Amino acid sequence: MNEHNPGVLACPQPRSPDGPRTVYGFHGDRLAGLRDLFQYARGMTVLDVAMNHGLVSLELAHRGVSLVHGCDYHEPGVATARAIFAEFKTLSRFEAVDLTGGPEALQAAFGADYLPRYDIVLFLGIYHKLKDQTPDDVIEGLIRHLADRAARYFVVRAASSDMLDEIGRMLRQAGLRKVHFSALSLVVGPMEIWQRGEVSPYIGTH
Questions:
Q1: Which terminus of the chain is more exposed, N or C, with fewer CB under 10 A?
Q2: pTM of the model
Q3: How far, in Å, CA of 127 to CA of 51, rounded?
């Protein structure tokens, strides 16, 4: 049972080097704060890091993205994502990756298919797990690597606003700018969307 919301189940999964695999809430909870991005997704490429079963990327596939690459340490989750996307025309590839190995682990897993840039990079709910088991310099190197891979949007969810601030400092140094924040959900942590390039004139300095 989720202690933050007694009506929502917490679904424990086997422990991995990325941390205890506990997924809170329903699918709709894990989409909290992301829906504004969906309307801009058509034709874009996506890198979904620590994707679980790839269900957020599935929502993007429904909205017309052109390609999805995803990774997770949990091999049954990777197999599930492959099976789901087999029913779609969207180009996709999903690999089991231990993120404690840093950027090199991603590069080794995807090989020549690993793109120099993805329109959307998803980094949802993994930061606090990495912090429990991975040296700070490895985490920082991974986030900077992923930020450089984000051609348009870097989407991050963390366990607290303080953790978002830690990540945000690295994203800002990579030339990204925060354009969206949501902490409405009582079930999942706060999230932000960071953008590269031209942003709305209505966005102030963050």
A1: N
A2: 0.85
A3: 13
Q: How far apart are CA 180 and CA 192, in angstroms?
A: 5
Place of tokens 């990774």: 71
- Determine the Cα–Cα distance for residues 128 and 193; give it in Å rounded to an integer: 18
Cβ–Cβ contacts within 10 Å for residue 7, how many? Answer: 8
Question: Given the DSSP bridges, would you call strands 19-24 and 67-72 parallel, antiparallel or unpaired?
Answer: unpaired
**What CA–CA distance (Å, rounded) separates 191 from 162?**
11
Q: Distance between CA atoms of 155 and 187, rounded to whole angstroms? A: 18
Report d(CA 163, CA 151) in Å as an integer: 23
Distance CA 103, CA 21 (A): 21
pLDDT bucket at 139, cuts 50 / 70 / 90: very high
As a whole number of angstroms, the distance between CA 151 and CA 86 comes to 26
pLDDT in tens, 71-126: 999 999 999 999 999 999 999 999 999 999 999 999 999 999 999 999 999 999 99
Looking only at the bridges linking them, the beta strands covering 10-16 and 191-195 are unpaired
Supply 88's token pair: 């779609």
The position carrying tokens 């991995």 is 16
Q: Which element (helix H / strand E) includes 106?
A: helix 103-110
